[in-house]
Amino acid sequence: xxxxxxxxxxxxxxxxxxxxxxxxxxxxxxxxxxxxxxxxxxxxxxxxxxxxxxxxxxxxxxxxxxxxxxxxxxxxxxxxxxxxxxxxxxxxxxxxxxxxxxxxxxxxxxxxxxxxxxxxxxxxxxxxxxxxxxxxxxxxxxxxxxxxxxxxxxxxxxxxxxxxxxxxxxxxxxxxxxxxxxxxxxxxxxxxxxxxxxxxxxxxxxxxxxxxxxxxxxxxxxxxxxxxxxxxxxxxxxxxxxxxxxxxxxxxxxxxxxxxxxxxxxxxxxxxxxxxxxxxxxxxxxxxxxxxxxxxxxxxxxxxx
Amino acid sequence: xxxxxxxxxxxxxxxxxxxxxxxxxxxxxxxxxxxxxxxxxxxxxxxxxxxxxxxxxxxxxxxxxxxxxxxxxxxxxxxxxxxxxxxxxxxxxxxxxxxxxxxxxxxxxxxxxxxxxxxxxxxxxxxxxxxxxxxxxxxxxxxxxxxxxxxxxxxxxxxxxxxxxxxxxxxxxxxxxxxxxxxxxxxxxxxxxxxxxxxxxxxxxxxxxxxxxxxxxxxxxxxxxxxxxxxxxxxxxxxxxxxxxxxxxxxxxxxxx
Lengths: 305, 257
Description:
The complex is a heterodimer of chains A (305) and B (257). Chain A has 305 residues and is mainly beta. Chain A is built from three helices and 19 strands. In chain A, strand 3 (40-44) and strand 4 form a beta hairpin. The longest helix of chain A has 13 residues, at 292-304. Chain B has 257 residues and is an alpha/beta fold. Chain B has one domain: 3-Layer(aba) Sandwich (Rossmann fold). The relative contact order of chain B is 0.17.
């Protein structure tokens, strides 16, 4: 891998070198490095682009890294990755995509990640998106995540996109069985003329299931963001979604939350708030000696931390 | 030394919906005050008398319509909040601001460290010290966000801890007692007494509380935007305590409305 690819890898997966545990690194449309462990297997799909990640029942405290980097301008790919997580597991999965585009044609990575999580397991899934390069070609990513959370399992998902992605449409859907939980935290910042659309759809099918979706976003310059979240309470369950947006410059943000209860004991809440940085927050930090610009940066960084 | 010269502040009808077009209202009327170094001054007076506005004019949160503010020989009237903060003025908000994603630790570090972002890091024992002065256990609070999860009283104590951490030559407190429970209030009195004893810094405290007025060296009575009285605590306080009915300082000047 070259320096550009290494930098992308560091940005999306926090990796300076090959990680411990299982990993598969995909660069410019090909798997370039792979490692498996006694409990985690990674198998190339035969019918289409992508891999199957198979985590054996009872796997504890192990991790899987599957970053994707694109540094060849004009490359377009669609990848299917399937995760099979057995019962009684506790694993961390780090995915992410970095695109460096210094050319004039669009580079685009679309991915569908499907999770099949067994019973009593805990999966932490981290996904970071990052773009760099000064070419006129767009850096486009459209990730889709489908999750089936088994009985009494817990899926924790963190998605971060702070810089450099010109266009993104991300769709996350989850189905929860009895006693299953999902917590999704999204951090998003758009600038320039970027566009980002986020859509969550959660079906709380099992008794005692719960979902918490928390999105924090900042839109600067002329960028646009749309946030959809749909929670369906089909049983005794708890669902909460929260979209908190800071709008700056000439940006636009829309938040469209939807909650549907079809069971008497479904408790669903949505909260959405969009506004500019509160003037009094800037004033307070200025009284501590920060300039207006420093105060603004502190507030935005804290908000997205 | 802080000097207020012929300080006036008016709001026009755009800023105050209660007024008819073309009218303006005087909040601060021609105030002249000098605060010497190492002073502990309480400013009191009826609600709506202009106390908070005066505090904000000193910090630069509001700009005067006319008049001058001189701090240690420098005219700071046109200076920004940041510049005044860097000159050594601190301000404790009556209603402290909440932040999503900024931790108690971050806020105190911003207050105590150099004014620059990412400036010298303040060590944990120091943060602990600032927080314990306001009656909070650092371990429970440093990693909490300064957001809606904190109660009004907790937030107020953290606000005061940021001022202690700043340790500047002049600190202005806008009703520090507001929203604080009795136990913390006793603590608060102690905080002010310590600040007074342990440094040469000056304190200007806007307050309605007798017990705060009782530890000030001087008291300024502000009503209808003007100084009604100023003097040593021993001269002013007994008059104030006679009750507002009979208090000569609270006898309002003839209404101009």
